[in-house]
Amino acid sequence: MSVESTETNPLRALSPQDLRAHAAEALTRARERSVALTSVDDEDLVRQHSKLMSPLVWDLAHIGSQEELWLVRDVGGREALRPDIDDIYDAFQHARADRPALPLLGPEEARKYVREVREKSFDILETVPLQGRRLTEDAFAFGMITQHEQQHDETMLATHQLRKGDPVLHAPAPPSSRSGPLPAEVFVPGGAFTMGTSAEPWALDNERPAHEVAVEAFFIDTAPVTCGAYAEFLDSGGYEDPRWWSERGWAYRSEHGIDAPRFWKREQDGWWRTRFGVYEKVPAAEPVVHVSFHEAEAYAAWAGRRLPTEPEWEKAARFDPATGRSRRFPWGDEEPTPDHANLGQRHLRPAEVGAYPAGVSPLGVHQLIGDVWEWTSSGFEAYPGFAAFPYKEYSEVFFGGDYRILRGGSFGTDAAAIRGTFRNWDHPIRRQIFSGFRCARDARPSEVA
Ligand code: AVJ
Ligand code: FE
User: What pLDDT score does 202 carry?
Assistant: First the structure.
C-alpha cells in the first residue's frame, strides 16, 4: 500500500497571493475569537477563575508574545517589540497557578500589544517570500501561529466554563440528531493503514511523517458515549466500585472526591450540570464531556469494553476501504463545513449523537471530529522519523510523559486546529478540558471472517 499522495496538499493549488489571503483570513478569524473571549470586564480578565487556568489576560498577551517571536522576529527578521516581557509569557517559566502574581500587562496594554504585533505580522505576510525556507513554505509559520491562537482560545473557553456568575457567552443550540437509530458499533478491518501525514501543509511536527501502522480487526463505538449511557454507569454505583478502576484511577477518584463528571450535580429528578453559567438538566443524547481519562477507562471496563488506541482511532477516522487511502477528514479531503462537524464554538455544547450524518467516516463512524475530544489509551510518543520543528517545546519535551492522547477536537476547537491526524495530549486526571470518549473492543476470531 502506498503512503498518502502529496496531491492532497490543499495549499499547493493556491497562487502565492491566494495563499497569503488564506493565511490572513485564518489569522483574522482567530483574532475575532480571541477578542470575543476577552471582551469581559477588566476584573474578569485579570482574575484567576481556577488554579488550573491562567488569567485570561495572560493567554491574550501570550498569544501576542508567540506571534512576535515567530512571525515578527523570526520570519520577519524584525526588531523585538517587547523583549522585556518574553519571560513572563513563556509557558515553561511559570506554572499556570503562579501566573496571576507576575507583573502582567494590564487589559488595555495587552490589547494594544497584540494589535501592534498583528499589524507587523500582516505587513510581513504581504512581503515575505513563501518559499526557500521551511518555516515559510506553504505559509507554515502563519498556520502554526493561527493554530496556537486557536488552541489558546479553546483554553480560554475552558476558563469561561470555570468562571462563576451569570453567562457572558451566548450561542445557538447545535442541531439535533439527523440520523435514525445508529448501530452501537462499527467493524474496522485489520491490516495496515497510513497514519500521520507528510503532505498536510499546516500539520504540526508530532503528526509527521506519514507511516504505515498495522492494526488488528476491532470494533469501535459508532458515536461518543452519551450522558445518558454515562449516567447508567453512575447510577449503578460505578464510582463506588474499585473493580472498574485502575489502581491509579481509584486513588485519584478517592483523593479528590470525584463522584461524577465535572460540573454535574445530582438532584431529586436526576443529573444537572452547569454549562457556561447556565444550570440545566443533563441532556441524555449528548456526548458526555468533562471526564478524565481515568473516568473514561472505568466506564469502558464497566461496559465490558476498552478505550481505542490512538492508531485505532485514526484508522476509524481516516481509512477508506475502497481505495486503501487515508483521508484528511472522516468525510473526505475537504475542509470542515458547519454540516460536517460541531467545531469552532459555533455552539456552546456538544451536539446530540447523530447530528452530523454528513461527517460520517467511510466505515460509518459518526462525530469523530468535533463535539468532544476523545481519550485514547495511548501515551504521547514520537512517530518513526519524527523531527522537532520548529521548536522542541511544542511536542518533543512532552514525549514519554504522563499524558494520554486525545483526538478529534471539540465544539470549542476551530477547524484550523483540527484534522484527522491532529494529536492533543493531557494528563490523565484532567477534565476541565472538553473531553469525552468512545469505547472499542477486539474483534473475536469468529467476527473477522
Ligand atoms: C497541544 C493543546 C496540549 O494547549 O498546552 C499551546 C498547545 N502549546 N501553547 C496546550 C500549546 C503551546 C498545547 N496542547
Ligand atoms: Fe501557548
Answer: 97
Cα(150) to centroid(ligand 2), Å: 10
Fold classification of 171-449 (topology level): paralog of FGE (formylglycine-generating enzyme) (3.90.1580)
Given a contact cutoff of 8 angstroms between Cβ atoms, the answer to whether 63 and 35 are in contact is no
Give the C-alpha separation, 439 to 402, whole Å.
21
Ligand 1 binding pocket mutation candidate from 60, 151, 413 (most atoms within 8 A of CB): 151
Residue 343's contacts (CB-CB under 8 Å, 6 or more residues apart) are 336, 369, 370, 409, 410, 411, 413, 414, 415, 418
Domain extents in the chain: 3-162, 171-449
Interior/surface letters 295-328, b for 16+ CB within 10 angstroms, e for the rest: bbbbbbbbbebbbbbbbbbbbbbbbeeeeebbbb
The CA R_g of the chain, rounded to the nearest whole Å, is 22
The chain-wide mean pLDDT, for the chain, equals: 96
Q: Is 151 in the pocket of ligand 1 (CB under 6 A)?
A: yes
How would residue 70 be classed by pLDDT, with cut points 50, 70 and 90? Answer: very high
Say what the pTM is.
0.97
CATH top-level class for 3-162?
A: mainly alpha
Atom of ligand 1 nearest to the CA of 155: 4
pLDDT tens by residue, 115-126: 999 999 999 999
